């Protein structure tokens, strides 16, 4: 029991002696009993509302960055979210103390010191991490140099050019400016040039890879004056492999699937129609899905839109090809049925052995079945005589105009006459794949190398 009383008495005397040595001055939310003796001396007469070198020249502030992560890059909002460690160094002659050591302070003591008013002008949202305490670091060196570091997460705007999406290359920036102090008050610089930025070389992103980066020093000009400005430029190259597997390969397979109908008989109407309509609808769904991750109101005609449009054109063309082939097949079948009916009627009747058969090139000429070569010659001579007689009856000017118009119309109509409708499918088997291959070569050469 006596030992416990002796220990309590010693602690009481020690606390009372310390209270007498350091008077209880207050520095904001802190008092002398909570600060080290060195900090007490430095804070005596210190005014945190005045910058260092006041009325003597600007404060030179060096900065460096560590990019901890780039969490998300959004094409819809055209921004990216990054977590960074921002370090600032400057010299405050009011904080010089003897010795060669440095003093690390609690981050909550930042309220006792002057700190730069650095901000990110392109930031949409940002916050300072505070788990388990506010992530700040204050370190004072004996020559008065102050190191101030903090960990922040910010969503920063990035203007993107999506013309070559998904084979695009985006250049984003991270800007640092002073809010209230102009160039006469503070000057910013990168402490080690491009080496002042760490973490981008080892950064791993879902859709992008960091291609290059560099730093620059410039000035921000506003109505209120010129302010110091530091800029980090970094280029992001999109990984196109994901989109090749997600969009390009399925669209190519749909185009190839639409060509299967060229090998199906034209009489199989349900089969060919089903393939054509199914591929068109599937391609439409694929086009809508490819646009869900992009801005709705977007003025860009993107590379993926061009390719999907090409594929949709070929698929729809395959459907139209069957419509044309089926039309000419039915037309050809109708003519054959007409000739067959005439032949059957001729066989059933006791006529003179002649039946008019309409020719595609000369519809007004008739041929007698069973006639000899001499009869055919006489018929041709008689038709020529009738043509000359008819030409004499007409006026020279009208005959020339009407004959030329009829000849032009006959030539134009002959273009749309198909002798064998099955040749349409036969030619489509070669034309469609060749044209699609040629368009693909032009597409990839343009968007990858131009």
From TrEMBL:
Regions that span the bilayer: 240-262, 274-294, 306-328, 430-449
Protein family: Belongs to the ligand-gated ion channel (TC 1.A.9) family. Gamma-aminobutyric acid receptor (TC 1.A.9.5) subfamily. GABRP sub-subfamily.
Residues in Neurotransmitter-gated ion-channel ligand-binding domain copies: 39-239
Keywords: Cell membrane, Chloride, Chloride channel, Disulfide bond, Glycoprotein, Ion channel, Ion transport, Membrane, Signal, Transmembrane, Transmembrane helix, Transport
Subunit structure of this chain's protein: Heteropentamer, formed by a combination of alpha (GABRA1-6), beta (GABRB1-3), gamma (GABRG1-3), delta (GABRD), epsilon (GABRE), rho (GABRR1-3), pi (GABRP) and theta (GABRQ) chains, each subunit exhibiting distinct physiological and pharmacological properties.
Main localisation: membrane
Compositionally biased tracts (Basic and acidic residues): 383-395
UniProt keyword Transmembrane present: yes
InterPro entries per record: GABAA/Glycine_rcpt, Neur_chan_lig-bd, Neur_chan_lig-bd_sf, Neur_channel, Neuro-gated_channel_TM_sf, Neuro_actylchol_rec, Neurotrans-gated_channel_TM, Neurotransmitter_ion_chnl_CS
Region (Disordered): 354-402
Membrane topology, from the record: Multi-pass membrane protein
Sample GO molecular function, one term: GABA-gated chloride ion channel activity
UniProt-recorded name of the protein: Gamma-aminobutyric acid receptor subunit pi
Reaction(s) catalysed by this chain's protein: chloride(in) = chloride(out)
GO cellular component terms, A-Z: apical plasma membrane; chloride channel complex
Lineage: Eukaryota, Metazoa, Chordata, Craniata, Vertebrata
Domain Neurotransmitter-gated ion-channel transmembrane as annotated: residue spans: 247-444
Biased composition (Polar residues): 354-369
SUPFAM superfamilies, per the entry: Neurotransmitter-gated ion-channel transmembrane pore (SSF90112), Nicotinic receptor ligand binding domain-like (SSF63712)
Keyword Signal in annotation: yes
Residues making up the signal peptide according to the UniProt record: 1-21
Function: Pi subunit of the heteropentameric ligand-gated chloride channel gated by gamma-aminobutyric acid (GABA). GABA-gated chloride channels, also named GABA(A) receptors (GABAAR), consist of five subunits arranged around a central pore and contain GABA active binding site(s) located at the alpha and beta subunit interfaces. When activated by GABA, GABAARs selectively allow the flow of chloride anions across the cell membrane down their electrochemical gradient. Pi-containing GABAARs are mostly located in peripheral tissues.
PROSITE patterns attached to this UniProt entry: NEUROTR_ION_CHANNEL
Localization in the cell: Apical cell membrane
Domain of life: Eukaryota
């Amino acid at each position: 029991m006596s030992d416990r009383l002796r220990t309590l008495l010693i602690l009481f005397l020690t606390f009372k002696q310390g209270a007498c040595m350091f008077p209880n001055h207050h520095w904001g939310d802190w008092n002398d009993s909570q600060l080290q003796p060195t900090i007490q001396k430095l804070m005596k007469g210190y005014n945190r509302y005045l910058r260092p070198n006041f009325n003597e020249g600007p404060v030179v502030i060096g900065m460096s960055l560590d990019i901890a992560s780039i969490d998300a890059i959004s094409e819809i909002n055209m921004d990216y979210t990054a977590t960074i460690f921002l370090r600032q160094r400057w010299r405050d002659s009011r904080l010089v103390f003897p010795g060669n050591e440095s003093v690390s302070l609690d981050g909550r003591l930042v309220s006792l010191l002057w700190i730069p008013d650095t901000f990110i002008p392109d930031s949409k949202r940002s916050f300072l991490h505070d788990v388990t305490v506010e992530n700040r670091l204050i370190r004072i060196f004996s020559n008065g140099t102050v190191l101030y570091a903090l960990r922040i997460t910010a969503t920063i705007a990035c203007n993107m050019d999506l013309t070559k999406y998904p084979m695009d290359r985006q250049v984003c920036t991270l800007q640092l400016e002073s809010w209230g102090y102009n160039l006469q008050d503070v000057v910013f610089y990168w402490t080690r040039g491009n080496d002042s930025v760490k973490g981008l070389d080892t950064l791993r992103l879902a859709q992008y890879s960091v291609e290059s980066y560099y730093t620059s020093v410039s000035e921000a000009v506003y109505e209120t004056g010129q302010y110091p400005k530091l800029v980090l430029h970094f280029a992001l190259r999109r990984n196109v492999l994901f989109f090749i597997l997600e969009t390009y390969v399925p669209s190519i397979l749909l185009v190839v699937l639409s060509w299967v109908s060229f090998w199906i008989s034209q009489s199989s109407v349900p089969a060919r129609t089903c393939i054509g309509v199914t591929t068109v609808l599937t391609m439409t769904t694929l086009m809508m899905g490819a646009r869900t991750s992009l801005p709705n109101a977007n003025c860009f005609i993107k590379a993926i839109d061009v390719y999907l449009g090409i594929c949709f054109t070929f698929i729809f063309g395959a459907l139209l090809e069957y419509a044309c082939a089926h039309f000419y097949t039915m037309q050809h079948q109708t003519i054959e049925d007409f000739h067959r009916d005439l032949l059957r009627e001729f066989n059933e009747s006791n006529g003179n052995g002649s039946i008019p058969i309409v020719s595609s090139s000369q519809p007004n000429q008739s041929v007698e079945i069973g006639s000899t070569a001499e009869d055919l010659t006489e018929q041709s001579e008689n038709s020529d005589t009738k043509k000359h007689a008819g030409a004499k009856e007409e006026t020279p000017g009208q005959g020339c105009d009407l004959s030329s118009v009829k000849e032009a119309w006959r030539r134009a109509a002959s273009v749309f006459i198909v002798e064998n409708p099955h040749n349409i499918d036969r030619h489509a088997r070669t034309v469609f794949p060749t044209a699609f291959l040629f368009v693909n070569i032009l597409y990839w050469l343009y968007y990858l190398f131009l």
